[in-house]
Amino acid sequence: MRNSFFCIDAHTCGNPVRLVAGGGPLLPHLPMGERREIFVRDHDWVRNALMFEPRGHDIMSGSIIYPAYREDCDFAVLFIEVSGCLPMCGAGTIGTVTAAIEEGLVKPREDGRVAIETPAGRVDVTYEEKGGYVDSVRLHNVASYLHEADVEVDVPDMGRLRVDISYGGNYYAVVEPQENWSGLDGMSASDIVGCSQRLRAALAHVCDPVHPDDPRIRGVHHAIWCDRPVNDVSDGRCAVFYGEKAIDRSPGGTGTSARMAQLYGKGRLAVGSRYRHESLIGTIFEGRVEAEAKIGPYAGILPSIGGWARVIGHNTIFVDDRDPLAHGFQIR
Q: Looking at the whole model, is its pTM more than 0.90?
């Protein structure tokens, strides 16, 4: 049997976003958190086939659009990438909105504004169009917060590190320069991947954060290594790690949200502040702390992230049962 998927490929500030516009599995009309669980249980082969080699690669990310269950949302999005089926993805949201609007997949109730239902909750998005193209996007992300500060963990080949556990739609280990890590200068991509893998493995024995409002969201699966900026218009620079060996080419939407929540939680960023976040390749997201928020017993923020994406092509992908590599592979 051959399955066909029509995809719109894009990138958000350098990070790939593959929007599955046709061929995605039909799911029951339920809240996105429940649809995510059903997808993972019954259809995760679709993610594996479209994200991993030979049809994808180590940093591939994507999304599938569904009708919204919530009446206050225009459409729903399921995020798929090499690290799994995520509750939320900032770069994925910016790329998905850009592709969906430009290609006519959705018709917003109000020009320049859409509300998206994600597994993490409602995400409001504004966008600007120029000449028929989406020029920029700002997503108003889910409430973000500093879950635990100054967690000490022994990392093989690095020594003891002090990290903060912060939530911005996914849980992150936030690392800043310290005695046993001097910063991003001089680190190769493979260095960052190796350090991230060891850090995540070590943290698994130390902490297991659970979202106060949704116990299905738990665990530290991402790391963000933070350093001083290179670009003089930026406030900080980062490398976001996810999956097994992926480094976000953008500054990371949920990563930037987690970073701002961490800085807010430590009294280093105020409501109304702007935080311009630089990626390893020099692209920038403009974060803003829009308001305070309460997440269970935690004080947090409502962040927004501004960025851009570009559609780079249409892609019809076949997944044929006769192919021994139909469901993808990854070299570890």
A: yes
